[in-house]
Amino acid sequence: MVHFEVTVNGKKEAVENESSLLNFLTDKEVEVPSLCYHPSLGAIETCDTCIVKVNGEFVRSCSTEIKPDDVVETMDSGVHEAQLIAMDRVLGNHELYCTVCDYNNGNCEIHNAVKEMKISHQETPHSTKESPIQRNDFYRYDPDQCILCGRCVEACQDVQVTETLTIDWELERPRVIWDKNSPINESSCVNCGHCSTVCPCNAMMEVGMEGEAGFLSGFQKEAMRPMINITKNVETGYESLMTISDIEAQMREERIEKTKTVCTYCGVGCAFDVWTKDRQILKIEPQAEAPANGISTCVKGKFGWDFVNSDERLTKPLIREGDEFREAEWEEAFDLIEKKFKAIKKDKGSDSLAFISSSKCTNEESYLMQKLARGVIGTNNIDNCSRYCQSPATMGLWRTVGYGGDSGGIGDIEQSELIISIGSNTVESHPVLATRVKRAQKLNGQKVIVADIRKHELAERADLFVKPAPGSDLVWLSAVTKYMVDQGWHDEEFLEKHVNNVVEFMESLAPYTLDYAVEETNLSKDEIISIATSIKEAKTTSVLWAMGVTQHGGGSDTSTAISNLLLVTGNYMKPGAGAYPLRGHNNVQGASDFGSMPDRFPGYEFVTDDNVREKYEKSWGVNLPSEPGLNNHEMVEAIHEGQLNAVYLKGEDMGIVDANINHVQAAFEKLDFFVVQDVFFSKTCQYADVVLPASPSLEKDGTFTNTERRFQRLYQVLEPLGESLPDWRIIMEVANRLGADWSYEHPSEIMDEAALLAPLFAGVSYDLLEGYDSLQWPVAKDGTDTPLLFKEEFPLPDGKAILYPVQWTKPLEFEEEYDIHVNNGRLLEHFHEGNLTYKSKAISGKTPSVFLEISKELAEERGIEDGTKVRLTSPYGNVKVSCIVTDRVFGKQVYLPMNTSGEGAINYLTSSHADKDTDTPAYKEILAKMEVLEPKGESPLPKTNHRFGNPQPQIGVNVAEKWAREDYVFPGDLVKERRAAKNG
């Protein structure tokens, strides 16, 4: 639809969408140089190269809003002169030595601008800023190559919102600084890599690129300057420089591979290109079109890939002989598995075997694992690690709205007027998603409420931070709901049209008065009323929650209470609203979606449904068991009871991540036969009879499904290391040894089969997932997906949601001697037990080991300081760990990250107590006693950790400070002055 017309270089042009002038000209393929502008960052206005004339006046096209009847000139000689002045200033800050530069890969925007503008020389000679190169183990900053475009600052301040980088415009020669001019390693920088991703040149660059990208760039530091001088002498004029460097850049294309993948860490589902040279990973390059993350990454996704080439990788099968393992050939390992599985099945029946799938593996591999269990062995004893984290959230949503997935996408979270985060350490657990919340709050006024027992970063930034008593979230959520109903603030129209069981539910709220909530939760009436009022005042509310909610005895009921509150207030069925149970692992959503559950086929169809079972029996050509199998919690008990004799586990370190691990490890020792399939020799592998070497995500094709129900393809980047194999190939071989006749040649064939059987993703195909294309389930047969989960109705009888009454399950009680509440969760730098991230020297340098957060009050009471080593003892075991004194925790609450498999592993303390509805372990219900072992010790957290930095929040780059400098003149004004002088 045409809104209005403008004139561009004498030609009438229709304007269909409101946008900046630069974007409009770009869409019309009118060339205008620009260096500071980035589509994901917007107008920064520092470089001035995009100057054009509008209605006779010089303007920066990046920040100029196009208006009706504007007359735009881009080819005027004055425009070109102003652009050249601006570009000359840029070149005064940047030395062109493209042929020996690691950034000469066809995407250096300075190189390309010089070439396109046909610049042959510069008036302002390049000169040093007389400031040393800054570097750490992740990236480096060369001030003498920095053009002060400010992209890195904009990305740090307003996309990542770590707020570390600024430009000090008051220096004689301005440059980028960290905090208050700290070294990188002593700053608040979290090494997310945004700065190097958006830098238009080689000023901010990943250290993996240094000396590796170019054919002539790998010189030692002392040889680099002579080489630059030689190159510049040979390349007389910029035309020859461009020609030679373009040839060298083209040569690089022959040896540098760029392959799209999806991150293997958390559930956000960041996608990016991986640059490799042979097996060497040069850098991770996110793309604006990546649907979940755009240009964003966290430290793990950007720099946490050392594990792929680790010397500790499993590369051959291992077979136990006594207390030792020996290397074996694949044939021998498969022979042994075949023999043992067949014998156990024959002697003790199909249900004497069990299978545990992985949240780290692909959808296709989860599909095959459950097909192996059901269709080959004949058991529904199949589960995955969502049992440890997200099953209660899924249960709460199944009960109320019919689907156990996020209501919308990350974009909906970003546009919501009110975010309520409950029991979610979002900034550390889901860093890129958290940046969207921080950005929306900072730039758009989004309101953020955090309910948590620990003051993490999002709590520090929150408009309202409340600290409920541990395990009491259901009470205050129900009290908020009751208060809103009592005030008449509920959405009566929505309830009447879209919700069942309203009257019964309203009656069930009677116990949850404000007085009762204050007594049980330790929140004040004002805090509860403030939460209710904020929901009333917001047009859209989204609730984010994670393990702080789900890992309790009543985790499913608390998740249900969240959904009840959203239904009562009409916060479903519209963009920017709804329920967002944040998935922890990269494919924990997909593992359940594709049937790695004891009671559900792929797409969440019940194994007890005769029609569904018949469909799978016909497709697979087998008879299938009709009764639900054991979940992984029940499997442990069944082993102890002698009812389960063999387990095949892939991609999960269950021996350290399950609760009450002394109990779990004792179970593993009782198994007749135990097969573990993994990338590394994990804690769980120690109990195995056969260990099979699997390939990580960079070594295979497949799909992951992220927290927002989004299917994304990952492409094979590297060949499998040694004799390791992709999980799907291993599972297929095991299945065929046991009598199957599978012949999959590519994961796409597995997806095609799954899509044919599961209505939830009937239209999913690899063709529709090419490159950065994605689909959010449900996906109809024609490929239409569902970004907003609920539109016209809910997938329940008569299309209505159900308000589901719940009662509070009080947390587990302990003897009086256990007086320390041990909270636990993730850290930004490491992932889960650390099997992958501790392989990174750079990441481990920042956070070398696990530590215990202790409050200042508790530290003073017990004589504890940074580095004090303590023992925590619960009724189930003990840990030894060094302390950090912090204001993030309060009173006798401590925080023990889960990121270790050593003597500080949290699950030596946890019990077998679990959510009453899903058997998810109550990891968060731990009390322990503490004793000091070593009063003095080295701090477990080095001073180079970002926690000790001093961020400097501001909006963007403060470009007005540049314009106010005495040495700055707007190029358009300079052109006017020159022409006035010439004409005068």
TrEMBL record:
Highest rank taxon of the organism: Bacteria
Keyword Heme part of the UniProt annotation: no
Domain 4Fe-4S ferredoxin-type: 137-168, 180-210
4Fe-4S Mo/W bis-MGD-type domain location: 256-312
Family matches, as CDD domains: fer2, MopB_Formate-Dh-H
Keyword terms, alphabetized: 2Fe-2S, 4Fe-4S, Iron, Iron-sulfur, Metal-binding, Molybdenum, Oxidoreductase, Repeat
Cofactor requirements of the protein: [2Fe-2S] cluster; [4Fe-4S] cluster; Mo-bis(molybdopterin guanine dinucleotide)
Top EC class of this enzyme: oxidoreductase
Residue stretches making up the 2Fe-2S ferredoxin-type domain: 1-78
GO molecular function annotation: formate dehydrogenase (NAD+) activity
Keyword Transmembrane: no
InterPro entries given in the database record: 2Fe-2S_ferredoxin-like_sf (IPR036010), 2Fe-2S_ferredoxin-type (IPR001041), 4Fe4S_Fe-S-bd (IPR017896), 4Fe4S_Fe_S_CS (IPR017900), Asp_de-COase-like_dom_sf (IPR009010), Formate_Dh-H_N (IPR041924), Formate_DH_asu (IPR006478), MoPterin_dinucl-bd_dom (IPR006657)
SUPFAM superfamilies: 2Fe-2S ferredoxin-like, 4Fe-4S ferredoxins, ADC-like, Formate dehydrogenase/DMSO reductase, domains 1-3
SMART domains reported in the protein's UniProt record: Molybdop_Fe4S4, NADH-G_4Fe-4S_3
Classification via Gene3D superfamilies: 2.40.40.20, 3.10.20.740, 3.30.70.20, 3.40.50.740, ADC-like domains, Dimethylsulfoxide Reductase, domain 2
EC number: 1.17.1.9
Residues covered by the 4Fe-4S His(Cys)3-ligated-type domain: 78-118
Protein family according to the UniProt entry: In the C-terminal section; belongs to the prokaryotic molybdopterin-containing oxidoreductase family.
The protein's name in its UniProt record: Formate dehydrogenase major subunit
Taxonomic source organism: Cytobacillus purgationiresistens
